[in-house]
Amino acid sequence: MNEVPIRPETPSEPSSLSALPSPAAKWTLTSWLRDLVVSVSISAFIIMFLYQPVRVEGTSMLPMLEDQDRLFINKMAYHVGDIQRGDVVVFQYPRDHTKSYIKRVIALPGDRLRIDHGQVIVNDKPLFEKYVPVRFVDSRSQREIQMPLGEYYVMGDHRSISSDSRDFGPVDKELIYGRAAFVYWPFDQAGVVR
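Structure for Signal peptidase I, as requested:
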């Protein structure tokens, strides 16, 4: 008889099937990629439409915000609600739209505003500003102005060094793109912006 000897496969010889990833490995890779795409998409949506991280540059908002603080701004706040006096807003600098400023809203459209030796007076009533320490108040004065529709008067809390509406005038609502929401760095100062 002419028999062809059958040689059993040895473990040292790779099988053509063993080179393919197992179904479990394929599922793990697919799941991981899906989760990555979903996570990146959600993060992009949040940053583009809801919250954006920003860095404070300068000391005009002391003592609340310090130079190099990191915070999130709420970009949807004014699409669903109105800008209020006292809000801390981020806006494009009116004289150079490539720069952003962060200041506090002091007067609203239609308000009458004047400043008498550092005392802000809105609609004939002195504005109580507990967020401005006495040592940060300056003695500047400004004659009364009537706020135009769609424009806001903004000032830094550190009045003696802030470049704000006293220098560049009221800010158009279209330039305001977010409300300061939450300081996240430095961690020991993390908290809601008020």
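Residues 54-192 form a domain with the Umud Fragment, subunit A fold (CATH 2.10.109.10).
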